[in-house]
Queue: 3 jobs
Job 1
Amino acid sequence: MSFLKIKDLSVNYQMRKETVYAAKNVNIEVNKGEILGLVGESGSGKSTVGNAIINLIDEPGKVSSGSILLGELNIHEDPKNIVKYRGKKIGLIFQDPQTSLNPILTIGEQLIETIQTHLALTKEEAKERSISLLKEVGIKDAAKRFDDYPHQFSGGMRQRVVISLALCCEPELLIADEPTTALDVSIQSQILDLIKKLTKERNLAVILITHDMGVIAETANRVAVMKNGDVVEIGITKEILTNPKETYTKSLVSSVPPTNKKISRFVIIEKENNIDNKNNLKILNRWTKKKIIKQDLVQVKNLSKSFDDNFFTESSKNSVMAVNDVSFNIREGESFGLVGESGSGKSTIAKMIVNLFKPSAGEFFFDNVCVTKIKQNSEMMKFRKQIQMIFQDPYSSLNGRLKVRDIVSEPIKLHNPLISKNDLDSYVFDLLESVELAQNSADRYPHEFSGGQRQRISIARSLATQPRLLVCDEPTSALDVSIQAQILNLLKDLQEQLNLTILFISHDLPVVRQMCDRIGVLRDGKLCEVSDTEDLFLKPQHDYTKELLRLMPKIESIYN
Amino acid sequence: MLVVAFVSFSLFNFVGDPINNMVGEETSDEERYELRETLGLMDPIHVQFSRFVVNASKGEFGISYQLRRPVSELIAERLPATIELVVISALIALISGTLLGVYTGINRKSFVSDVILAVSLLGVSLPTFVIGILFIYLFAVILGILPSFGRGEVVDLGFWTTGFLSISGWKAIILPSVTLSLFQMTYIIRLVRAEMMEILQTDYIKFARARGISEESIKYKHALKNGLIPVITIAGINIGTLIAFSIITETVFQWPGMGFLFIQAVQFVDIPIMSAYLVFIAFVFVMINFIVDILYYFIDPRIRVKGDSVSG
């Protein structure tokens, strides 16, 4: 007898013209002491199901049919009653620990209020209970930190506080909506271990909503795959991941970058049609293709960057060393990966290389010219032309008020003001074609495109100046796995044909393994280790690298 | 402050010859020269300016041309009236603005919210003097329940004259303070409403709901506290504006405050009063912003701890 039974649950959004189903006839059962993984890409309805269980769907969505049974209790029978079960019977954890705590109340106030809402306890008793809870979720000095505000905790600690809040009234069902997506690998594994431990100890029924197959492989007992509001497939995790029956599940599993081997391309099952005539890109005609001479294109020597917290007192005491004495070389035509957790300084290095930040110390050579010493603007322009950047967030890195045509042509005109209109147009079209976008997209605005398409526009824009070095700062971390696979394939193809040199920055080790020839591991602004990709993954030298590799969620772990 | 001081100081030098305004037609040239010497108008500009700043910091702004009395004395006499007016109307604006803002933010679709918002639109678009005159017409002329001008009976406490100690004083302050507060109130209503609507969408409100916290606590404890932070910033700036706006209101209601004094001074080109008023207003603005910054410290814990504990 399973504990949670979702029967024929449908959630719809009544729009002005049509009704959109966010979930259609979903049937899911979860047992006590079991973790059910709910996977799917963005928009698949996995969060909707989670929210529907406690009836917290944003307007104008509503549960249109179906029942949800918690044990013997039909919790949706009376919509007014659901408030009583929130927190008491069902705990919910959200994705982003930075925003899910009220910033102006101490964590103690938030805990006590929640406990007193559901349990008849005095303030003292509630406080005692909260402190023991905080200890249970692994917060040191719980009694002392009880009166701290959320911003005084780090991301991982905050997520622990969130978990303690979700569990403080001993719910029997825990819904974790992407609980570790916003966290670093090392923190992620701690939080997942915590959830696993609590599931066992408290005999919880857990629904773990995530897009990360590696996380699912390591934690979930059973998994349900969702697509467009439907549950496509449900079953034991191992079977779903190793032997998927549905095409969608197959393509989802194959898009996940494997952690244990390097593959040349990602297999894309759903869209296999448009990958022909790749070898005659039209932009090649304009491209002064550099011959690959195995020499260093980029040399970074003892680069440092410190940020001063305080504007007035420039004391070194307050300054943060974001990058500390980092040196590495990138050979022409290779992909160099920089990995590290948040705050390790990888984006700062990228910004110094594209000259958005001035380094505090050290030098940076490009093609044997010291860029950091260039003073004149006109000289600098030559380098800016050769180094282009692709940013992480495709939503904020494109100006929403410009048409795609203007976005792509702006850098062309900047570096070649005399270009004729016809020439410019055909160049823009060629660029769009090279990133597999249709010509008619030139006259549309960025908001009409999906995340993956926007990232393609970003790539087209960066190619417009015919750069030799492409700096990609987490180019796919905002994208779904299947889109990520497409973008990574595209980058690989472009690199091959245009002889691009790529500096690839990511926190995602499997992705880096697929993309890069050599990898540097960063920690707290210092470079721990630089070696060839396969060496790094097979024989890591530095302790930190070993730690990172050990903690990385591995989809292959399911085979063991 | 120095910039404002310089502007008000330059009023002295560029707006005509003060001596002409002070003395009659039949004064001889020698007498004029003597007066000029005693007033220090023959000194070089920077000497005059530094003297102005030094005197201003001591609260001395010279002698009113029109009334022939020290400006500081005049201001001290008029200050209580203005302060009382501004404080009362600021309170009205803050309290009712916040209450109405919260109401309209929470009950977004109710009819009452629509009415409040429509009326508040009137408050923004109608100029203060029109509202003032409408009020006088309605409450003083037609209904006859409130006085149309003046402060009513005033009790002198030696250093401060107050209208709060008499019924007629309270009656007299109602119309001008409400008039003055209307504009700010509508502003605050809209701000609080927008803040509440935004905050009710945030993750931590959603998480609080998911924990089963009661709706009342979510709205009035979790959301409102966060929503008030920007209100304080705006309110601080706006109290300064209230003083500036009080010029019009005081004129309409013949309120014997500083604004009224200023208008009279403008009519007679009474420059010492005008410059003193300018410096005073600038001083108030600076002080209020200073107080607001300190208030932040108490309200927003994120600012309080900056610097000493970033670890966690």
Job 2
Amino acid sequence: MTEWADVLKRIQSGDISGTADLLLALDARGKKEMAETLRGYMAERARHGWDWLGPRAEIGALRLAGAVCLGGAAAVTSWLFRRDLEPWPFEQTADDDMVRVLRERPEPWRVDLARRIVARLRIPTHSGDVSHWGIAARLLRETGAAPPESDALVIGWLLSFPWEFPRDDMAPAVAKDPLFPHLAPRIWEAEGLGMALADFQVETIADLVEMGRLERGAVLDGIVGRLLRDGPSAARSVTGMHERMAPTLEESRERATDYVRLLPAGPVFVAEVALAQVRRLDAAGLLPGELFAEAVEALAFRPESRLGTTLITWLGEVARRNPERADAGLKALAVLFARDVLTLQHRAARLALKLSAHAGDAARAAIAEAAAALPPELRDKVAAAYGAAPASPPASAAPLTASRPPASAAPVGSAEELGHEFIATAGTHGPEQFERLLAGFVQWAHRDPHSLREALQPWWDKDRRWFSPRSHALVLGDRLQPAHELSHVAIAFISPDDARQLRAAIAEAGRRVALMPPPDRMIHERIREVMALFEAGHTCPELLATPTSGTGHVDPDVLLGRMERLEAAGLAPLHADFRQALLRLPRSVDDAVVARAARLTSHAGQELCQWLREGGIPDPQVRCEITGDPTAYVNALIEPSGGHLPKLIDELCQQGPGREGDYSFSVSWWPAIMPSHCEVTAAHMVSALLACQEFTAGGVTALTALSHADGPVGVAMAYAMAIGMSHRLPIERAAAADALLTLAARGRSPSAEIGAAIASLTRHGLVKPNRVATVLNDAVQAGAHTEVWEVIAEALRALLPAPGDRPDRPLRGLADLIQAGSRAAQLSEARAEIPALAALAARGGSSRLVLEARRLHTLISP
Amino acid sequence: MAVAVQEYSYARSSGLDVASGRLDLATSGGMTRRGLVARPRFFSGLLTRAAPSAAGLLAVADVAKARYDRPRSAAGWAASRDPVVTCNGDRLRFESFSMCGGVYARLDLLRPALDGEIVDLGTTNVDVNARLREALARLGGSDPLHLAVGADELVVTTLDGAVVEKKVPLPDRWIRGLAEVQVIASRFDLRAELGAAEAVTFLRGLPMRGVLWMAPAGRTLRVSTRPGAICLPGPGRLATMLPLLRFARALRVYGPVTAPVPGLPTSSAWELELPGMRYVIMLSPDPRRGFSGEGAVLDHLASGGAETAASDAELIGALLCFQPRLEADELQEESGLDRDRVRAALTRLGTSGRVGYDLAEAAHFHRELPYDAARVASANPRLRAALKLADEGAVRFTAPDAAEVGERRVRLTPAGATCTCPWWVDYRGTRGPCKHVLAAQRVRNLIGAGA
């Protein structure tokens, strides 16, 4: 139709008034037809995929077109609220044009439309505008209808103040708004008020109150009621409104109970506002006694320490003015004694001592009882003034229990089970499952290749469609991903040709295996070995290195059995597999085992026998050095202790400086590689942990596994623990706490070394003492107080400035460390001499650092 | 997804007059001892400890309108579902379930807190409106408060036209979640108990987000990574407990005794002991998902013996009389069924919303949720999908305990079933059987029954 073509041209050019003129000229039937055409056009738009990103210029005109042509109010409402016609914020919404074209409709119809639109208004999620509010408001204003109840309408109205009313003369303009008498009373009950009260709105409401258009008492009641109702989710802007209203003393007095009831539960800014009013009333003598008692009790219970200090100041003033209120104040102070913040405890105790003359019996008893939680020197002073506290049971330490070592995984029962499990867990398994599956592959490829092939076939059929050697190779990169690379073993078994292509592609992509950390290289070698075995079409009855215990150890008898079977079949063991098996032997074996080993005849058998006889390799020497330039870094140096080491093992036992940025995706695989030499593993892990200290995949959980390993514990373990304890995330630090507890329970905790490590790392800015302190606190609570005390004592000796030095700026977080030390020292009843601590304690002042130092010094002095 | 619309009809709004100390809670229709009553009256008397009771009611109401999966969304502005009150004779229970379906809260007012006349036993909704919340927050001090749950009939007839009606949408998954909570809770055990001071420090020191594992450390709990620890998924969801801390006497933690699959989060329950009352919160295993998909109900519905369970449930259901504790021994005696069948029947009644589980008492209690939970249980989407698979003939048994369902392989071992679908890999059976396992089980039952 020519008409439609004209209309379409105007719509597409965004000519809103032109469209309006054209459409208004239609008669009723024409409009109905146009409505159908419009719907068709929208459907076509949707089919073209222009739902939300279509030509924006059309949107305004389309909305208008629908408003003119559609028949009922419900239809127009649905049209305006269509998702694909949604006007973006700050887009020209042509509200005025819309209202102009709607004027020709009868008034009841427009009222109905306004009501329907209001019913569909929604409060925005974040800040923003209430969409479609403009239309609703204009219709309501024009028709003068009473708006239905809608929070979104109120919020939209408030948000519109800066746009709809002149900025320099807002309050009178708002007062003249037809919506004002309906919406103003409901401001304080609308949900989402917090986001709508910006400066404009606050000032305008204040001006309206001054002008007398809003009743002051009602507004104050509304604000206070709103704060009460919201409770913990109160909005800051509402308190801002309250402050702007600046209630007079009389108004404050009327609402005294409400202010006191606001103190316990809300956010801290609400409590501060309420507290200011309560203090004001009290200063004027207008606060009744019970309310005062309730207020101080509520304040004392709040967690924020700045409110605690304000409370103490206030109580000091009150005590000077009205000594008879000292009782209630002392009960509140008793609550503060139990807080863990040393500065608060000191100030509260000082005030309590000052008020001791005015204390009643109940208050006296409360203070005396609560004093048990104070540090010793305060406790004595308080006891002198208030009477000795009833003997409190000494803080009992929790028994230290060793955590269970990780459970060992059972071998795979059948080829089908292997296939099932492999398919189900492809790519997501951890170290134990990896060993299990690898062993299963080798075993069942030998025993029952047919069923294994059948079991894996569905996976391969699906995977083959996407398999491309080149893309697989590119994805791998230079870091090992053992969970992922196990699938290469499966590919090698099912389709050796593809595996060969894969190997070639990896070589072509230039994967630099030499860049992998040595433990990763060991795993890599083992996987490649098995792949090569399958590619050549051979099989092997079983792997030697499969662990028999959760810590990664292989039982020597079991290993000998495996070797004997291999010898009987006349097969040589796989290279890397054999080396790994050697590394997994325990540190000492029975003579009977050695005798059995002596009966092995093959070359590998004899090597095994020698290994068993000598007790494995001599422990390599491990040192940790921190270098300063260019950036602080920890070098964990490993040197073999002499003797000839077999290949692969020698790589593990040697590490030089300068492996910056060494990280690995598979740190949790490492503890099981050398379970009898945990120091060497720790040395490898140091740089990986350091690199990942701020990242989510921190790898600290590997420390927990490492704590179950055997072997001498020394510097590297200490450094690894110190770095792990300073991880950003509490979950990772919890793993470090678990590791420390396990070490302590097994009696192997290198406490002094950990303390020294913490000190040197802190000096170079590589760990943060406050994070370490949280781990140490947890460990103390779980029962490892003796070990933690040794750690902290050593750390403090090295961290604190020596007595003769000029006091320099203290390191951040030191106070937390000293606090943890106090807890540990108290439980373990330790006595020690730390001159630097004595010097710190002798300093003047009452900063937290000095107070903590004094407390610790008092605790540990003999 | 079907969304029923729940209509509440109250004689008037609930109100609290702080000056005279009267709390009137309006009730809507529900089941009582005498049958269905339009506006029952349960209790009229004093609450001996007003401040903690008011704070507890506010906490329950806060959970009802909370939406923890999308904390910043404006959906909290939508109408929330009113809490459910049950009068069990010696206690009043107020229950609510969050909008996201992941948090269940209950406040039990026990005998020491109530001092008055129990008029009737039953379950209904109570009206909680903005005025009431404001007034509850205004309450404090130590004066007792007069509580009336439901109004005197005489009073009702003298009011003219002050009826409050609300219509709230009630999605099926919300009702299903409420039923799951009871089944999951019945498998919990007490895992830890903290004293008042430790509870305060512990709850205040929790981060807001993440899935935490807690292990006992001395007298409190610490974050740990050990298996077998207590799971706290989304600690921010315990925020409604914070205003109650000033009254707290102890904190008890309940959870499954052993994590079925170590490493996967589980749900847990946290109970705060207040003077004369208890406030308990149950959390779903992940803040972003509710209880409805946990499949505890399905474990039970699809198992063998489901047919007898239905009739057993009816039998036991007839013995229920709003008792605060359903003792298994008594039910065994009265019904003549054995222990396992009684337990299965109670689980079934839980899935249809007719019993709840009280962790502190370690027993079920009777209450009739005013929702049509039975219809919803049978319309479980996973069950429907499984039945569809079974009817289409997609299940092919290749061995006595292995089947192929579509392109997934299912194994039904006595220790538990396994499947190769990605959903199973992610959850490993902690959320009940997947639809393939259900389909295979059903076909096997049919074969077994037919043979």
Job 3
Amino acid sequence: MAGPTRRRAAPYLMVLPAGLWMLVFFVIPLVLMVSLSLQTGNLVDGFRQTFHWQNYTDGLAAYGDKFARSLWYGLLATLACVALAYPAAYWIATRGGRRKPTYLSLLLVPYFVSFVLRTVAWKLVLTDNGPVLGPLRDRGLLPADAHVLDTGLAVVSGLTYNYLPFMVLPIYVALERIDPRVVEAAHDLYASRFQVFGRVVLPLSLPGVYAGVVMTFVPICSDYVNAEMLGGPRNTMIGNVIQSEYFDNSAYPLASALSFTLMAILLVVIFVYARALGTRDVLEAARR
Amino acid sequence: MTSARNHLDPSLLRGLTRPRPVRPRRDVLRLLGAAGAGLVLTACGVQGQGGKQNVTRSQVAQYWAGKTRNGRLSWANWPGYMEDDRATLKAFEKATGIKVDYKEVIQETASWFGRIQAPLAAGQSIGFDLMVMTNGIQLEKARQLGYLAPLDHSRLKTFAANAGPGFKNPSYDPGNTFTVPYVSGITGIAYNTRYVDEEITSIAQLFDARYKGRVGMMADSQELGNFGMFLIGVDPEKSTPADWERAAERLRRQRDAGIVRKYYEQDYIDAVSKGDVWLTMAWSGDAYSLAGPDVKFVVPEEGGTIWTDNLCIPKTAANPVDAITLMDWLYDPENNAPLTEYINYITPVPATRTVIAEHARRAAGEEKKELERLGSSPLVFPAADDMARLRHYRRLSQAEETRYQKIFEPISKGS
């Protein structure tokens, strides 16, 4: 009796640590946050559960534009990430040779420095009289009042930079896994270099792009550090609003409601994206 | 690789790639889960903690009973509030043997309060025994919620002897129950003379379209709101919600016209020194202690705000006796003078002025000139008629505060 029972229990025992971890640090806080998002009150008098669903509608009404801006910046930064990451990953995967690990670690070196410090560095680079804008303005290439810091351009650039490796790595893995003989076969069948890329390499690497997009788009949309440090009053993202509602205003219910709205929106976006790009294709490609 | 994959057991592949059939048991679990979640949703609320600002003598005695000096303390403060070489802290350690772990972690009162609120509400240590909080919404909350240790005035004899009349028994903390002032300062305008070629004298110039994209305002809703009210000729202390609406309207117009480049916390100093913004709302001492030589500070003709940064001890402090020792020690004019000479804010110890004059007599050259300027600076030792132009923050009730925040908070967030 003991043998089969234990064998049946084994997989459950194996997921127990991770399951407990998820329960304590993810599920319970999530339930508490849902509860909080429906409460009313203030810090001094306390918060009480009143099932005040208006927290959600109020939040959307007041900050709908910030949601839209977050998604827009997320889209721009993700596209920029793809545009920068694909050629880099392609080059490392096909021309890297023995040095592939070196190139990959070079890519990761800046990320050993703290996230905040890296963003501060951008601030120093982009400042009006700094190393980039100063010389350009002095040579008359920029109008006197042009600036980059505290604009949307600075925020999207910072976001792109900070999340780039999360795009490069999955694309690299996908490209690396392509069997070189498949490419050879395409050449043997008189495909041009463009045809090889467009009809063989690109489709086979799409699962990497898909994973990269999910891994960058979601955190970018909820980021607040870049908008805080590199943006101005017209570049506030929803993360900044949640942060200040929670920490500056102690408006816990509203902040929780905004967080869940953001989560729901991102889930819908990713779901639609997965449907459009087709998870089935991805799985199929991965199985090949 | 490919050949190995071909040998994969097809049943294993199926198991890995296909979803398992759903068992009815899961629905039961799901139902149970939903019911449980519903219970949790209704059960938990956050208890109110208000009404703890009134403290009896026995509560003070109770707090301090059994507390002893531990020879160390950690202190959370704003940037620019201590000499770069920490000379004052070294002198304190030499005099008392107490080691101070000093951290410049406070950038804005609201965000600082946000950081310490959760641990304090849970009765946990925040890692600091002494912190500096500006009189205003958050200090009021910390008092009401009982987050601060009630001060034992039998240990504050030097404070009693030397604190200036304006610094004892302030309206925001009657009887100095929880706080003693660290410094006071004025909120005014700082501008960079390398870029601004006119004299800046008034708040209206912060709203001037010729400085489009070159103006910094503060993110703090009380500071921001006050400047809006000064602009429309309202004394913030006597303002009404209707005034707040009108002031907010002007501030919003200023923002939407693109005049405001950014709403800053403490980081405005960096921006105005580098020339990213040319003129900005600023705190008096910063312009001397942190900004470059081109930055000039003025108290606008419409008025400026005077505020006080206060030393207080979080209730959960591990070393409160060491912290209160430092509080008292700072009120000795001899100890206070070097600090005032560096930070250039208004000191709560008026006798410091004679010590600074004495230092100036003994100094020579550049340093002598600097100390003489300091001794006669109206921003460090304001005269009575200067003080008359300065206004205090308005004290807000809980209901007023919610309304006030709703009006001014969204401005810096771009809404």
